[in-house]
Amino acid sequence: MNVSDFIVRRLTEWNVQRIFGYPGDGINGILGALNRAQDKIRFIQTRHEEMAAFMACAHAKFTGETGVCLATSGPGAIHLLNGLYDAKLDHQPVVAIVGQQKRTSLGSSYQQEVDLVSLFKDVASEYVHMVTDPAQVRQVIDRAMRIAKAERTVTAVIIPNDLQEEDAVEEPAREHGNVFTGVGYPKAG
């Protein structure tokens, strides 16, 4: 199983049944995983990334579930912002999953490279993180889902495209410095 397959599996464990998004090179690994898991989770392709974020927000409003949207790196990620601000201002739980350029090219002004952590810092102020190692995926997805749901806000997870194809680490080694998480959260009474 690769990182993308693990992300999709983890999202299904959080009861995510659909993801709204628009294809692009920065998320090819995740799109492949969604294709392989189409019997468990539905990818709803929108006409534009902005619409994906608005649809994830509407999904959260009308179902009470956490909405999830997916976009590629660079301009694709930027196009999510209007819909994500709608979710933030309406206090709706939405997780944005965005691709990023290859890790070795970051900081080189590579084609369509955007500092996505800074870009999403305001709209996803409760939680925005870029995954840099397969062992992080579990806790980053869990925290993004948990915080979005508990705080009724927008969170963002950034996944470089080269990381998407690496072998998954389903559970980090039990050693000092590693973080362990699980699916779900207890609701306040």
- Across the major sheet, the strand order is 2-1-3-4-6-5
What kind of sheet is the major sheet? 6 strands, parallel
Evaluate the radius of gyration.
15 Å
Give the helix/strand class: alpha/beta
* Structural shape: globular
CATH C-level class is: Alpha Beta
Could you describe the 3D structure shown?
With 189 residues, the protein is of the alpha/beta class. The chain has helices spanning 3-13, 28-36, 49-63, 75-78, 81-89, 116-120, 137-151, and strands at 18-21, 42-45, 67-71, 94-100, 128-130, 154-160. Strands 2-1-3-4-6-5 form a six-stranded parallel beta sheet, sandwiched between helices. Helix 1 (3-13) crosses helix 2. The longest helix is centred in the first third of the chain and has 15 residues, at 49-63. It starts with a helix and ends in a 29-residue tail after the last strand. The model has no long low-confidence stretch (mean pLDDT 92).
List the topology elements.
Elements: H1 3-13, E1 18-21, H2 28-36, E2 42-45, H3 49-63, E3 67-71, H4 75-78, H5 81-89, E4 94-100, H6 116-120, E5 128-130, H7 137-151, E6 154-160
Parallel strand pairs: 1-2, 1-3, 3-4, 4-6, 5-6
Helix pairs in contact: 1-2, 1-7, 3-5
Please give a quick description of this structure.
The protein has 189 residues and is α/β, with parallel strands linked by helices. Helix content is 36%, strand content 16%. The chain is globular, with a radius of gyration of 15 Å.
